[in-house]
Amino acid sequence: MFVQWLLPVLWALSAEADFFQFDSISNVSTYYFNYIYCNIWEGECQPNQDDATQQVPTRDLWAGFPQDYISLLHQWYCSVGQCCDSGDCRITNNITGLAWDLQTKLHGQHLAQSVVLKAIQGFINNPESNKPLTLSFHGWSGTGKNFVARIIADNLYRDGVKSECVRLFIAPFHFPHARLVDTYKGQLREAIRDMVLRCPQTLFIFDEAEKLHPGLIDAIKPYMDHYDNVDGVSYRTAIFLFLSNIGGATINDVALDFWHSGQNREDIGMEDLEHRLRAETIESHGGFAQSELMSGHLIDFFVPFLPLEYRHVKLCARDAYAARGLETDEATLDEVAKAMLYVPKEERLFSAQGCKSIPQRINFFLP
Length: 367
Prior knowledge:
- Helices cover about 40% and strands about 10% of the residues.
- It has two domains: about 95-305, 3-Layer(aba) Sandwich (Rossmann fold); about 310-365.
- It is of the alpha/beta class and about 375 residues long.
- Residues about 1-5, about 5-30 and about 45-60 have low confidence and may be disordered.
- It is globular and about 60 Å long.
- Helix 1 packs across helix 3, helix 4 (about 95-105) packs antiparallel against helix 6 and helix 12 (about 310-325) crosses helix 13 (about 330-340).
- A hairpin with a 6-residue loop joins strand 6 and strand 7 (about 350).
- The N and C termini lie far apart (about 55 Å).
């Protein structure tokens, strides 16, 4: 029995060279990719690790396993762990948890809370959807786009962004070289196809989508279109998230106009932003904006992330302290919030950095 379950492990070691398909192309940016993965996407990284050994696999560990080895490993795992009686244990689709996390953990984003929940819930509850779900997140850096992507992954998958059914692509790090676009196209198609074949429901996240090379997204455009299948593979249960700073100026202008007119921030509706956001995205530069996703109207929802106000920054600081198991008070939260940059500066209205740098900021206020 020991030999039976040890065989897959030995097979994994022998297949180690196949784990990092994209990294063989993008090794120049490996260090920076790992820094961002560890600090923004909260990957499994060792503290104070300065080398580039911690990498995010773009091919799944089990891709190189013979099916009989996978079955043996599954049987052994179920003998010592927990397995589902039916369905796929990797997929949880906790819509109640998604609603709670969006409501309690995401601050100052009533539009994103509403649109994301309705879109995900509607898609999950409709197994006969005629196309994959494609969402495009827009707004300033630090307003919560990455955070919401993690919330989605955490509630739809048992292992969150670390799940073998979730794949993260960071444009300038996975696809850094324009001269290799044709190579990236083939690798991207293969990576998505392989993952869809292994998982009944998949999540693909493209961070910094505005930096994608022209033509790259068009290579996988058929996977997001209204097709029963592409080369015999159905992609209808896949979810695609594109995160970008495109449209940030438009979103900020609308928020500022509401503030100047004395209207409540919560009165901003999708009707005030969606048309303008779609138009700015189409007119902007870059491979994502110029892709056939836009001309083919394949983006299901353009999700705006509003600039955060002073009160929202305080809530982010409160959460950061709580995450460290630390108690705090209003005076300390005010000090952290005041240390951020705001636009317009004289009115201290919108945080220019959002909540992204809050965890680093509070280090200055710790005893």
